[in-house]
Design a protein that fits this description.
With about 260 residues, the protein is an alpha+beta fold. The protein has eight helices and nine strands.
Length: about 260
Amino acid sequence: MEMMRYDKARHAIQEAHSVDDVNKMMAQAEAMQAYAKQINDNEIETWVAEIKLRAMRKFGELSSRLDKTNGKYQSPSGGTLVTKKEILKQAGTTTQKASRCEKLAAIPSETIEKVIAYAKEKNKPVTYADVYIDAKTRKKGCGKYWLGEPEVAIELWSVIPENGKNGKPGWTLDESKITDLIMYTFDQEDCNEVFLLSFQMLRIAARKNIKNWMNNFKVDIQSSYGKRRSHWRSKAVFVPIPIVFNAIQDAQRMTF
């Protein structure tokens, strides 16, 4: 019975076309989650928390389409032209909540699914805060290139600047990236451990050690292809995890 309700809720979220409808779904999920917590039903609380998170992402997707470019949009009830703020108000929410959901919607789906799977494995309700764990997974077979310990990718450039085009900093060095933790995972044949690191401390350690790492460890450039024959190259250095741990530990030490 609970699985049927879960599947029905996920389908309803996928089919929703208005911020008003999705906001009602979020409110219902919040009420159900509070009730499940009150009666100490962890199973229901866990799947309802997932539904709430998925609804927030859907809300963010729909809200982000209300671009502020022209400032006015057709009212959901038809007729009058209204602002994005007014549409959100009619739906019973705020621009602040919409902004939060839009940030959630901007996170890659594969990251969301890994965070949800991780929460299920731990048998705990997934929360909005959990999503600020960014997951990085190495391809199967990467272990054959290691000299001993597992190696993690420290991205230098997401898009290398070349051919007169601007580049995009790698996620490790990107000052605009919104993440608290980085979770490195591997195929179990390569490594059965998961490494969870503070993103901010990793970024500080990377900036301090990047030249040394590039001189001492493997640097790789990968080509990627997108729509309309678009092409870009990314660049990363692969650093043994004990070296990264030590660099983070050093970065946490301060002298006054």
